[in-house]
Amino acid sequence: MKNYISDTSKIGKNVSIGYNSVIEDNVEIGNDCTIGNNVIIHPNTKLGSNIRIDDNTIIGKKPMFSPRSIFKAEKKWTPTIIGNNNSIGANVIIYIQSNIGEFNLIADYSSIRENVQIGDYNIIGRNVSIENFCKIGNKNKLETNVYITAYSLIEDYCFIAPCVSTSNDNFAGRDKERFNHFKGVTFKTGARIGVGSTILPGIILNEDAFVGAGSLVTKDIPAKEIWIGSPAKYLRNVPETQLLINNTDK
Hints:
This protein has no helices and 33 strands. It is mainly beta. The strands form four sheets. A twelve-stranded mixed sheet has the order 3-6-9-12-15-18-21-24-27-30-32-33, with no helix packed on it.
C-alpha cells in the first residue's frame, strides 16, 4: 500500500497523495493538488495547481498499436500537460501528448486519446471517449457516453447530448482508398445536438445549428437551423431566444 514517487519528480506545496499511487520520472505537480488512490502518472507529465485526480486514474499513458492500426507509434512523444484547476474523475485515462487547459471537469471513466487538445471550462461527462487528433475549444458540454471520432473539431459553447456518436470513415474499414478520406466531424461555435444522434464523416454543424434527438446527420447543417429525423431534414430556424448571442448564461 506504499506509494512510489520518483526522486526526479517535482511535487508542489500542499499536495495530498492517496495509497498505492505511482508518480514516475520527471513528473511535475503544482501546488494544492489532491491525488487519489491507485493513480498512475507516467513520466514527464506536467500538472498545474489545484487539480483533483480521483482513484484509479492514469495520466500520460502511451497507446498500444496493432499491426493493422492506421495510427503508428511516434519516435518521440511529448508529455501530457494539464493546466490549473481541473477536476478529473475516477478510472479516467488521459493519454500521452495531450494538452488540457484550465477549469475543466472530466468525469469518471472518460478516455482522452493522444494528440488531443482541450481548452478551458469544458464539461466532459461520464464515459466520454475522445479519439486521436481532436481539438476542443472552450465552454463545451459533452454529456454521458458521447463518442468523438478522430480528427474532429469542436469549437466553443457547443452542447453534445448523451449517447451521440460520430464517425470518420465512409468506407467502413474496406478499400485502401479510405486512407485518403478520413475526416472527423466539426461543431462550429454554439452548435447543439440531441440525445442518441449519429453524425456521418466530415459533416459540419454550423454556428448555432441544432439537431433534434435520435437524428442521423448525413448533410452539413446550416447555421441557426433546426434539423430532425433519419436522415435529418430542415424543420425550422432556431428561435431568436435560443441563439447564443442572446443567452448570457452560456
